[in-house]
Amino acid sequence: MVEPRTDTLTRDQARALVVRAQGLARSEADVRAGAPLARRARAVGATLMRLGAVQLDTVSVLARSHELVNYARLGPVGRDAVEAAYWGGGRGNAHPGPTTTFEYWSHAASILPVEEWPLFAFRRRAYARRGFHWHAEPTRAIEEVRRRLADDGPLTTTELGGAKRSAAWWDWSEAKIAVEWLLFLGEVACVRRVGWRRVYDLADRAIPPEHREPAPGERWTDDEGVPGPEDDDCLRALLERSVRVLGVGTFADVVDVHRLGPSRALPRPHLDRLLEDLVRAGRVVRVDVEGWDAPAYADPAALAERGPVRSRTTLLSPFDSLVWHRERTSRVLGFDYRMELYVPRDQRQHGYFTMPVLHGGRLVARVDPQRDRAALRARRVTFETGPRGGVPSSSVTGVARALREAASWVSAEEVRVDEVVPAAAAPTLRAALAR
After folding, report:
1. pTM
2. Contacts with 177 (C-beta within 8 Å, 6 or more apart), sequence order
3. Is the pLDDT of residue 9 over 90?
């Protein structure tokens, strides 16, 4: 054990740590679209390892969110590289190579490195203890899904018997309920998608044995029939990884990465004790951050780099892990952000799929983009303003650059801007786009 220490960080130091930990520093090498597929896929895989989880979502504006996450960090790597890294690429249900990822409930429905499979044993056990909660248990369908996957797998939901019984999104078929339940328990895994459709397989076949079996001398349990490391070992490992992903964060920030609690099953005092175990072991450093009401935890390796950060200039998905915790986004980056996808149209302030713009290590604006034939259309650009209501020229330059690069990425021939807030910044932005 080491003697815990408490460091102090300024707001700017904390912000720099966060941007750097998220792989958004300008020093990160771009992987150009013309690079070989294997190199681009390796870069995508390395980004996933760094972030620990990338949230998946069905909404697609410029691209799906998981593609936007990689674009923001790597440049125009292309969908083929993302699909090769996440799901093996190619066609057909069979995985064409070694399994490197799996899908599971983390921050939300997420793609995760396969190395984290053992660490989610705690969640699989929690589902087993809780039992069914959304639907009645389809006992016969569970046995049928097991048999079909064993004999004919891997299979999609359609091949198993369909996803829905009606057009309603919640009205799942018994086969869909059964296979998702087995996915929750870890008996079934999703390590592949084809055409955005999940492909299900038995975990014993899909997950490499080194991630399903304990290493020599390692303690594993099989409570509730779910093998894996003991719950506290899983949680300590995920908490440590979460601190590394954040760079620095409060208790609430850290547990939010994988939605670890607090809850009745995982009360705050228990999670606090696990974090303190990491502090005493020197795996995590307790810090105070200027202006933060709560104490924080930092990655020791991140603390070694406290200098200013020169970030990439890019549009960010609303589901990007830099901004998915809204209170943290306000506290760390001084940016009050609300995703308005599910807000009625007449109540939206900034737009349907509002994307923050990162420039100079700060979030300087938000853009509501749309593909409009051969153009990238910015239906509304809203700048962050200074104390006197003005817009820094560097913010305008950054937004213009981000829009031009995004347009090139999606093969749009031009950028069109509808509304700019404040309106006084519109001529400067349009002039910057024209250059």
Report:
1. 0.94
2. 134, 135, 138, 141
3. yes
